[in-house]
Automatic annotation (TrEMBL):
PANTHER family: SENSOR HISTIDINE KINASE ENVZ, SENSOR PROTEIN CREC. Keywords: ATP-binding, Cell inner membrane, Cell membrane, Kinase, Membrane, Nucleotide-binding, Phosphoprotein, Transferase, Transmembrane, Transmembrane helix, Two-component regulatory system. Its EC number is 2.7.13.3. It is found in: Cell inner membrane. It comes from Acetobacter fabarum. The lineage of its organism: Bacteria, Pseudomonadati, Pseudomonadota, Alphaproteobacteria, Acetobacterales. It comes from the Bacteria. This is histidine kinase.
Amino acid sequence: MGRKGFRLFPRGGWPALKVEKSVRRMLPRSLLGRSLLIVLFPLLITQGIALELYYGNFLKVVSRRLTGSVTAEIVLSLNALERLKNPADKEWFVAQAREQLQLIEIWRPGEKLSRVGSTHVLGPMDDDLVHALREAIDYPFFIKWRHFHHAVRIYIQLPDGVLEIDTPRKRLDMGQIWLFVAWTVGSTFLLFIIAGLFMRNQVRAIRQLAQAAEQFGMGRDIGPIRPAGAQEVRKAAVAFNRMQDRITRFVAQRTGVLAGVSHDLRTPLTRLRLSLAMMPREGSICAKAMTEDIDEMIGDIAEMEHMIDSYLSFARGEGSESVQQVEMLPFLEDVVAAARRASVHIRALVVEPGLRAHMRPDAMRRALGNLFDNARRHDASVVLSARRVGGGVSILVDDDGPGIPPDRRAQVLRAFESGQDGGTGLGLTIARDIIRAHGGDMALEQAPEGGLRVRLYLPN
């Protein structure tokens, strides 16, 4: 195999990618959540290091000193009790140990220990005391920590009985560790909450900017937003307000210019139509031929006016119409009635009850009118339906015409691409631009009856 060899997984291959995806799934997706994790992890690491330094060094040193002192006094008591033979002397020593050493000793002759070792508590003092007693005495012993609140009971098995020793818990227990742990945890959560409040304000400003950009992209006039948050976020908000103002002024100027162009183009066409209408059609040898020519010229003028309207509609977009919340059933009923008056065969209208959508009504009428006009030119009947999908509204326009092949659907959505002679190629393009200006989208599919299905989606 040479120097290359065989590698089961390539470097940086799918195992590492799988681990990375698992970590990403566990991490929060929002900016606020990730920012809080960036704050929380260093806090936890810092407090953990501080706790380990205190717990692992200072607390252990103090605990060993305390347990060593108590162990030395217990060894002293054992040596004295073994040396003193007189019961009165033993009682005197036990009384002195209680007063001077704070050790309460009880001698139980003839008893045996049932267990040895120690019950465990939080902290190093239990292990330190066990270790110190094992090094200092040769007798079995048992330490009970949890049975008494203010004392620790030590049982020592002597040859002729058991010696019970109660020592104050404060001489062995470092009560400050609870205060330190509480301070560590409390300060961590306090700093985390403060950081969360500050980060939430920053994220709120970013979220407000993103929402304003989304609303403006869907053509909804929300006015300028108030700059808030950090300096960079404020600069972004100010830049967005300026951009919004420039785009609004540009659209208004372009609409005004196009309105003037529309007037200038229609004026000579109107004069031509009037001149043709006033031409004499009778009393001439060629009256019949002239009448046919005049009718054809009038038809050409009407077609030119229709083409000019299509071009201007494509260039003008939606104008200054505002977005409204529209109830879909009466709106689509009006659209269908207007289409039937224009000789469009609408077979059925199906609308989900209570359906509402945010739209520009006149622009949507123009978009649906273009779709109906395409079906009429192909002598196709239309089924119109609307229903709620996710967070928006889906409108389906199905016809039983020849349809559009899948390889040409993207082409016919481009401007000036027409599927038949004499068309402007702007009907579908204008409809798609209107839908996208609402923040939605338009797709061409195959209808259940084999014709064309136009799927419109409007977000709420």
